[in-house]
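Researcher: Quick test of sequence recovery. Tokens follow.
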């Protein structure tokens, strides 16, 4: 079961959300520059945290209701809060990735003139792993 929790409130996330950036992050940080003498200067380090975690639904999986998404929006609006994201049985300490706005978004599966909280949306959730 995929969940997002702060220890008091727990939200169940769709089990079939896809982690879209699972293999696109490297902990190696590198900068390169040239010295005045023309030599290459390489500075490398390993990032201990900061891995992005993006969970996204597709056109035929990972849906949630507008009401469930509104609950997540309320959680994401809480500043300086750490969450426990449990995804595929692994727990991650995360924050919402507001630096890559929007930290969460959704589009309607079907466009309704007067949407209801029970109508279905296709969500994308962005987190940053902090430990």
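Model:
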């Amino acid at each position: 079961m995929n969940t997002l929790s702060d220890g008091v409130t727990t939200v169940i996330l769709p089990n079939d959300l896809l982690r879209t950036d699972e293999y696109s992050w490297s902990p190696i940080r590198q900068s390169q520059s040239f010295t005045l003498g023309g030599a290459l200067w390489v500075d490398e380090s390993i990032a201990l945290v900061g891995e992005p975690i993006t969970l996204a639904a597709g056109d035929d999986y990972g849906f949630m209701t507008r009401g469930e998404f509104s609950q997540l929006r309320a959680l994401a609006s809480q500043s300086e809060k750490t969450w426990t994201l449990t995804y595929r049985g692994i727990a991650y300490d995360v924050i919402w990735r507001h630096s890559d706005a929007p930290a969460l978004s959704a589009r309607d599966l079907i466009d309704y003139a007067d949407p209801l909280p029970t109508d279905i949306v296709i969500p994308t959730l962005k987190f940053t792993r902090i430990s």
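The domain at 2-129 is CATH 2.40.30 (Elongation Factor Tu (Ef-tu); domain 3).
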